[in-house]
Amino acid sequence: MKETIHRRSFLQATSAAAGGIVSGLAVTGGVQAAAKTKISLGYDNFAVRAMKWKASQLVDYAASLKCDTLFITDFGPLEKLDDNAYLVDLAKMASDKGVKILLGSWSICPTANRFKKDWGSASEHLQLGVRMSKALGSPAFRVILGDRTDRLSEGGIKARIADTVAVLKENKAYCVDHGVKIAMENHAGDMHSTELVELIEEAGSDFVGANMDSGNAVWTLEDPVENLRNLGKYALTTSLRDTAVWESENGVTAQWTAMGEGNTDLKTYFELYAKLCPGTAVNIETISGFNRELKTRDKAFWKAWPDGKPKGYDKFLALAKKGKPRKAWSAPAGISKEEANQAYQKNEIAKSIFYCRKNLGLGLR
After folding, report:
1. Distance CA 247, CA 234 (A)
2. CB 59 within 8 A of CB 70
3. Domains (ranges, CATH) in the chain?
4. Does position 271 have pLDDT exceeding 50, yes or no?
5. Which of 173, 246, 305, 319 has its CA 20 to 30 A from that of 262?
């Protein structure tokens, strides 16, 4: 009986929270509503990955949250990759509901640990995504290099950047002919923002830009505000979230959170955002609930950083000093992990969208 009560209470609480947010009834800690910024607001489908929704369902959910954009960052939800008519119809269906679709996928670095041959070679993968983006009306196609393990690969991250740049240059004409730009993400600790800038400039900033990920910034020892300072003018797309960081036994620990629940200076962040990239949609990608310690007090940690502490490291440490430890999230008793994850993820993104609209003035409607 006790487990049943826990399950019922958890589902009622998350459902009520998300429902109140969508209907505009949620409170925000007494913060006065912000002035509208005229910046589009949406979500990254990875935020609700546990739902395993197809594209049409993701569109419906975006519409229910009154989002302006839906960022589909993997091909999984799309039912027909080689059918342009299907993609065009999907884009129209979304547009009729006030939602613009943006598209992304995974690694185009053929020597990265995250690279998969699911879509052929790196060039074939890139061209497939560009063609699909054009059909969907997405002005950019988001891709990644890899993750933090690539910093320790042969030649280090510089070698992986060079391999990625080669793929991009090889396919420049194809991208330009289709009118689609490439948005490279700072992903899972692979590139510091300054390294991503080097990649963009080397490949050609006329057709390559950034997918800015504020949460991933902390994994490369950056205050998200400093990450924005470096990448803002290159931003084509975004996958943003708030983060809590604090000093811990071996260095600094980070926990990604819903918007407004971390210790990122969101007021400063979005004031700067409005100046650097006002035409770039804010897409929220909540991946909340787990802790990751960056063991900066261990000499072995710095093997991934052969050139020493990166630019802005002092500001990252200053941010950590302001934080307080947090427990990781875990599913309550009496509910399956899948069901708990689904409810938790929907609640995290729904309250984040509401916070952005109410407290930061984001969104067109």
Report:
1. 31
2. yes
3. 33-360 (3.20.20.150)
4. yes
5. 305
